[in-house]
Amino acid sequence: MSNKAESFFAGVILGAAVGAVTALLMAPDKGKRTRKKLNRKIQDLNHTVDDLVEKGKDSFQHIAEDVESNVNDLARKGKRIIGK
After folding, report:
1. Which end of the chain has fewer CB atoms at under 10 Å, N or C?
2. Model pTM?
3. What is the pLDDT along the chain (84 residues), one digit of tens a residue?
4. Which DSSP string corresponds to 9-26?
């Protein structure tokens, strides 16, 4: 997934979380009930952020492996050219 797509989805998730928190705070529930709902939403947000971080790590790992492979290929080609 591209950085733009990941940024977009992170923005959507953050926007949804802010909207949910705002809605909970504005709702006419009792304080204890609102705090429980808010706590649940925060836990959901934490899980979502953890998932995004893991996806980011995976993407970075793949990119790093591709870069390493390309550098090794270029080094081999350079050695062949110099050796001729």
Report:
1. C
2. 0.48
3. 567 777 777 788 888 888 877 777 777 767 778 778 878 888 888 888 888 888 888 888 888 899 999 999 999 998 888 886
4. HHHHHHHHHHHHHHHHHH
